[in-house]
Amino acid sequence: MIGRLNHVAIAVPDLDAAAKTYRDVLGAKVSAPQDEPDHGVTVIFVELDNTKIELLYPLGENSPIAGFLSKNASGGIHHVCYEVEDILAARDKLVKEGARILGDGEPKIGAHKKPVLFLHPKDFNGTLVELEQV
Q1: pLDDT tens-digit profile of 33-59?
Q2: CA–CA separation, 99 and 67 (whole Å)
Q3: Which residue among 10, 15, 17, 121 is the one 20 to 30 A from 59 at the CA level?
Q4: Would you say 54 and 45 are in contact if contact means Cβ atoms under 8 Å apart?
Q5: Which CATH class is domain 5-133?
Q6: At 89, phi and psi to the nearest 5?
Q7: What is the pTM of this model?
Q8: What is the residue-wise DSSP string for 35-101?
């Protein structure tokens, strides 16, 4: 059902410093910051040959990333994202298998402007999983 790894998302306490590290120290191509108000984050994309890294920073007080950073002050891996061909079929199969979909169970448009769903980390070995339709 899942395809390739689309991205690894890392919550960061300082977006500019994190971007600088990826750009200047690691030599990666780094995008400009992009606000995603529907998801409560500002995101920077780090483009790699085989995948992407998303640097996530809280956008507003109610951001889920603010909560994550309050427990992990230096930041850390927030979620992994896998590609699926048909997000509704993937959702239905996962629900049938007993997996929990976060939110209302309906896909939302993600930072890449494609439908996404998040899966409960307790169902996936403590890892928050995002599915993105490609």
Answers
A1: 999 998 999 999 999 999 999 999 999
A2: 24
A3: 121
A4: yes
A5: alpha beta
A6: -65, -40
A7: 0.94
A8: EETTTTEEEEEEE-SS-EEEEEEE-STT-HHHHHHHHSTT-EEEEEEEEES-HHHHHHHHHHTTPPB
Instruction: Report the DSSP pairing between strands 52-58 and 76-84.
Output: unpaired
Annotated domain spans of the chain: 5-133
Distance CA 81, CA 118 (A): 9
- Catalytic one of 36, 54, 61, 130: 130
| 61, pLDDT greater than 90 | no
Cα 53–Cα 58–Cα 59 angle in degrees, nearest 5: 115
**Tokens representing 88?**
């509704």
Six token digits for residue 132: 């993105």
Q: Is 97 a catalytic residue?
A: no
